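Re: beginner question about structure tokens

> Can someone show what the tokenized structure looks like for a real chain? I only ever see the sequence side.

Sure, here's an example I had lying around. Input first:
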Amino acid sequence: MSETPQFPTGSVLGYPRIGPRRELKKAVEAFWAGRSTADEVEATAAALRRRTRERLVELGLPKDTAAIPSAFSFYDQVLDATAVVGAIPARFADLVGEDGTLDLAAYSTVARGRGDDLPLEMTKWFDTNYHYLVPEIGPETTFSYVGTRPVAEFVEALADGVLTRPVIVGPVTYLALAKATEGAPADFAPIDRLHDLLPVYADLLRDLAAAGATWVQLDEPALVSESIDVPVERLLAATADAYRVLATELARPQRPALFVAAPYGDLGAALPVLAGTDVEAIGLDLVKGTAPTEAVPGLESKTLVAGVVDGHNIWRADLDAKLQVLEQLEVIGAGAVAVGTSTSLFHVPHDTADEPNLDPTLRSWLAFADQKVAEVVTLAEGLSEGREAIHEQLLEASDAVASRRSAPGVVRPEVRERTGGLSDDAFARGSFDERKEAQAQRLNLPPLPTTTIGSFPQTPEIRKARAAHGKGELTDEQYVEEMKAEIRRVVELQERIGLDVLVHGEPERNDMVQYFAENLDGFAVTENGWVQSYGSRCTRPSILWGDVSRPKPITVDWTTYTQSLTSKPVKGMLTGPVTILAWSFVRDDQPLRETANQVALALRDEITDLEAAGIAVIQVDEPALRELLPLRAADHADYLDWSVRSFRLATSGVRPDTQIHTHLCYSEFGQIMGAIDGLDADVTSIEAARSKMEIVEDIAAAGYPRAVGPGVYDIHSPRVPSVEEITELLTGAVKAIALDQLWVNPDCGLKTRRYDETTPSLEHMLVATQAVRATL
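And the corresponding structure tokens:
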């Protein structure tokens, strides 16, 4: 066995891959639209990878120690692993080249679907707002090493003089997150195929070693989670097996040194399992997880990569406190300690320097990706050279932390007094049976009432009008008229199609969270703070830095104007407190429970005003309810308690005849049916089309008593579903759920789609609904 190369003293688990100005998004979407070639997209991608390497070297990561991760993706890292191991679903077999590879067009089709061929299912990546594409693995799935992009990108960097560290989803996580193919035996689980998959990983590792790679990072976040379908004991056994094969049986120098990273939580019982293998480095998330308090057998021969810099939030680190954590790690007996980030940095924006219009004091509290790299470099220097070597940086960080703690608006006594005075009555509504009867009389809806989730396509004209208004090129009055004209078009379209409950389409909203953040005290918004949500889709999380309140009504004028255009009910549309927290960068200086209640009270005020204005249906979206569920089961009860109570605090001040809707999407919700029930919403719409109505079985089994709208139209794909497809989904729902409980709706909002997709899809939804109604 050859000598193990030294792990770099400081590194990051990954870096933003979309580009500081979303260059990758624009290039990929131009390719999908036929405006550019695959070669042009590849050129853009290569330039972005080169920029990343150069920037990380500039920030202090050495270019010759494997400190710089190679973690690029055109769409999703799990889809990339699927392409590497050749596990392409049979419905896309015709897209696979003779050598087993996917070109960019084929890769995109697997992600986005085509015709009647559904794309891979999409769901949330652990407790983040990133979505990954779920592998489909069955007993018949063939694995083979066909995707050589990790090697090509390593060689590309080496040609530029940079020794990178390839980053790949680990084999245990890959299979733990997969779903069984349709028709697989009931007792089959994808993790059963581990020993068939490992030889493919071994081939990849051999290839990387032959190309000159000294370290490879295998990401195994499944090891920190108890919220996946694989039992913990099975997961631990699979981990021991996997790294016996990849680290012991495949000995160096046949492979690079292995760094197994476990972000997003506490590694817990998996740490001694990994320490007992021959992997050379183990990464711990020491932001959401904790370090052991005593020596771990086997760790003495390994590097512990201590993820003390938060890769998931944007607050500047207290470097003194982080250095103390690093210094205390001596007790666990690691062969060496290196400094790292808790997760990949692709969850945060690129650079605070791109936000010149943020308040300078607020900006001084923040660390985006580039600043976090600098923090890692500083802490690595302090750990190896001593505190005096970084004395000035420690003082500067401490001053920023103190400034944030004492700044006006961070604590507002009137807000604290209101949340502190809440009684149990503030969290409860009356009997659902009474509400159901009162709402039926007021709304008078047909069986299988139809609606949409809220937003309609944001056309180039809408975006231009918003940009012109922001630049002062449109007056407030002109902007309002532009938006009202769009609302009229959306209402006319919905009435022509025949929807039963209408929406105003949200043309005035740039984002379902940012719009509210711009109108609530305690928030700030960015100009270039983009992060990847899924594929080419990006979002700009707002910054929740202080106590939250609502200075004035936000949505009332738009909703009441829309209601004036139609005799059909129009939904007031709000984003719920948990989702506002989940999709913002939230303050970390108080419990989330307190912050959620502050946001909930601001929304309660808005709901009260909507109801007073005559709005009969109010939707409070909580798509992130499952997303924030802690990865460890012991933490579930507390989270579900405060998250459900915050929703109820927002929605429990209305009359019985005001119908409260909520919306949940793109997560595995079967685990939290009790919490969904606890929300006590009158109607819950939920993603179901891409998973072929899997959630319906959970709803039926739980005896869920209120109304539900399992989605029949997958809006995250450009496909237009056929009438037959929607009819089949709807027929299945009718068989499982009582007729008077069912609503018909898309999976999610339509903002990201085009009208030439949206209009026929909704028309098909109505035709299918009418066909099913006729059979009742």
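Each token stands for a local structural state, so reading them left to right follows the chain. The radius of gyration is 26 Å.
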